[in-house]
Amino acid sequence: MHLARFPRLHLAHLPTPLEPMKRLSKELGCEIWIKRDDCTGMSTGGNKTRKLEFLMAEAEAQGADMVMTQGATQTNHGRQTAAFAAKLGFDCHILLEDRTGYQDGNYNTNGNVLLDHLHGATTEKFPGGHNMVEEMEKAAEKKRAEGRNVYVIPGGGSNPTGALGYVNAAFELLSQANDRGLRIDRLVHATGSSGTQAGLVTGMCAMNSLVPVLGIGTRAPQPKQEQMVYDLACKTAEKLGCAGVVKREDVMANTDYVGEGYGLPTESGIEAIRMFAELEGILLDPCYSAKGAAGLIDLARKGEFKDQRVVFLHTGGAAALSGYDFAFDNANRWVNL
Ligand SMILES: *Cc1c(COP(=O)(O)O)cnc(C)c1O
Fold first, then answer.
1. I want to staple 286 with a disulfide (CB 3.0 to 4.6 A). Which of 99, 125, 213, 265 is the partner?
2. Where does the pLDDT of residue 23 fall: very low under 50, low under 70, confident under 90, or very high at 90 and above?
3. Which atom of ligand 1 is nearest to the CA of 76?
């Protein structure tokens, strides 16, 4: 398995740090480390940057002058795509689906939306439940008819090309752990469009690392989430020339922490945001990393990680926080001493 056979733009800040979380570990009674993929560089960072290194290299190789992608209003993927497009001199158009129904001003114009626009991207809004894949194809065809060379990136950058970024992350994490003599018993992270987990599982299996990867769901129910990850992992392994290396049982998702739905903050997620912020000085986001961390915290409290060393992969997302300010009651932080 040789990643350098695939075109890649080296724009991410790698390797990302692997750090102990001492106060959180003490609080939860198990050893928890964090892999800081919230620090990948491009436009405040996040997990899409690793995928975009491969996707945007492919766009460049195809002579594209415009990229299109889609996601929810506060898509982190859209913001990171917009930043890559700016860096490479491409136009960028992002189709945004209203998956929450929030009328809140900050949700609709602040956070990632503000950053999309600052990077020069254009955005277009669609109601929730719309067929966004079809809508994006229509939009791309419109631009192609005008003579543009459009490269279409699926939601979340989750296809075999994007997943290569997380095969690379698996290599990177394992080599950091090996160099430091750090045995990893479990890798936990938030899973959504599935490219992150598919890439990690493919990389971990191809290296025969025996590190179990647990995805904490943010949208789909468990059978659907696991199937999505497994299907993409199989295609990714095939692309890499190691078809069959991922077994169905290597794909594990826990979807108990989704709450009422995608993009809707949960009580356990808000608690996770406060714990990471107050104990470790690390920012999570309500849509993804907080739900992943809520799973980590709850499973740790239930003794699931007893005597284990767990690595939490921080997939980023804090740029969305100012779009979700209504989810936090911080009135008691104003005091007169
Ligand atoms: C997109 C995203 C995820 C989920 O990653 P997938 O590859 O889509 O499964 C997790 N966390 C954050 C912050 C994200 O933006």
1. 265
2. very high
3. 15
